[in-house]
Amino acid sequence: MRLVFVLLGAMLTSSDWRPAIPSYDWSFPRDHWAHDDYRTEWWYFTGHLESALDPKKEFAYQFTFFRVGLLHDESTLDSNWAATHLVMGHVAVIDLTTGRRFFSEVRYREVPFLAGFAPFPERQIGWCRGPAGTKELWTLDWNGSGFDFSANDGDQNVSFRLSTKASKPLVLHGPNGFSQKSEEPGSASQYYSFTRLETVGQLKVAGVEIQVRGTSWMDKEFSSSHLRKNQIGWDWFSLSLEDGRDFMLYLMRDEDGTVDFASGTVVYENATTRFLKEEDFTVEPLQFWTSSETRARYPIRWKVVIPSEGVEFDIRPLYENQENKSRLPGGVHYWEGSVLIEGTIEGRGFVELTGYGEGNRPPV
Questions:
Q1: Parallel, antiparallel or unpaired: strands 124-129 and 115-117
Q2: I want to staple 284 with a disulfide (CB 3.0 to 4.6 A). Which of 30, 168, 303, 312 is the partner?
Q3: What is the CA radius of gyration of the chain?
Q4: Does one domain contain both 124 and 181?
Q5: Residue 175 CA: distances (Å) to CA of 189, 262, 264, 274
């Protein structure tokens, strides 16, 4: 769900941008497109795919498109190439049979020929060039019932082109989609999800193209003040159970690593929702893994208990190393991984862990 970097120049202060508010007037499909008045925004997709010809061949993926506001008004700079936004993309693919994993990233100013966001109601939401040596664009479109997106890394010989269709209606997280991240009113986002998207398309791994099908989860957040000063990062869980329920859990961590603020959402099979407060659930780390590249120490196994829902989970990854490490100047690292859910009811999900390691606080 979600890591945003400050990479080009000094950004405006949070007070210069529109804050998230409890009374936001949602309008769909318009709100699938960009919101220029907010400082940060992301479209985040994760999913589990299988080969259409051999279901034993399984994969997990992440595709994230970021928009970071740089200027409110490009007219403040006397240039046709003045950039009001920064566009970033992250892609990860893991072969769940072999454990082989790929991570790719791009970062561009929103200027002609490099990257951009289209206005509503054009089909396209956003696009950017691929990494160096890649001819194909990275794209994100709305198809009327879900999202289509594509990414390619020519150097790693990895790509996908996926089309999704909602099998559950979108849901809002927090009252009216106002997702607080601390007790401070301004520390919040406007937040919604499609927790189940039927997914089909093509995946290419190490040059081998595979027709795939599966299920994806989509998150969309936009805000201007995501973390407050004492918070160093977050642990985020998207959990889909075999009985049709989905759970989103969000834990913000303090400087000493303890949970500073937490919330969640239960999405039932019929797409009705129930808001979870911090006291409604517990997340206990059971096992840790230290990255040999960044030396960051991440929790990678958890016990999750939600008494009011009658569930107790043991959540663990098939593979410990699912760390995304930026190779670009000023980038950061985070753990973004596919997990198995075992316990009273089984399922699959994704976990995102940010702010682990020295000097690695996501500046959002």
A1: antiparallel
A2: 303
A3: 19
A4: yes
A5: 11, 14, 11, 10
CA distance 107 to 130: 9
Please say whether the dihedral angle defined by the alpha carbons of residues 215, 337, 226 and 116, taken in this order, is positive or negative: negative
Contact between 93 and 61 under an 8 Å Cβ cutoff? The reply is yes
Q: What share of the chain is helix, strand, coil (3-state, %, to 5)?
A: 5, 55, 40
Sign of CA dihedral 201, 167, 220, 288: negative
Quick one: which H or E segment has residue 24?
none
Q: Does the pLDDT of residue 8 top 60, yes or no? A: no
201 and 343 in a single domain? The answer is: no
**Range(s) of the domain holding residue 352:** 229-364
Contact 191, 176 (CB under 8 A): no
- Please give the C-alpha separations between residue 277 and each of 280, 283, 314, in angstroms, as whole numbers: 5, 13, 21
Judge if 219 and 319 occupy the same domain: no
CB 244 within 8 A of CB 79: no
Separation CA 255–CA 221 (nearest Å): 24
Hey, how many other C-beta atoms are within 10 angstroms of the C-beta on 114?
A: 16
Question: Does residue 235 share a domain with residue 209?
Answer: no
- Where are any strands of DSSP class E within 167-245? 171-172, 178-180, 188-205, 208-225, 231-241
CB-hemisphere CA count at 13 Å for 104? 25
* 3-state secondary structure (DSSP) of residue 279: helix
* Cα–Cα distance, 189 to 177 (Å, whole number): 8
Let me know: does 315 contact 345? Beta carbons within 8 Å: no
Number of domains the chain is built from: 2
198-221 tens-digit pLDDT: 999 999 998 899 999 999 999 999
- State the CB neighbour count (10 A cutoff) for residue 176: 14
| SS3 (DSSP) at 76 | helix
How high is the pLDDT of residue 78?
64
Which of 139, 131, 126 has its CA nearest to residue 158?
131
Q: Identify whether 7 is part of a domain.
A: no
Tell me: do 140 and 284 sit in the same domain: no
The whole-angstrom separation of Cα 153 and Cα 159 is 6
Direct distance between the N- and C-terminal alpha carbons of the chain, in angstroms, rounded to an integer: 13
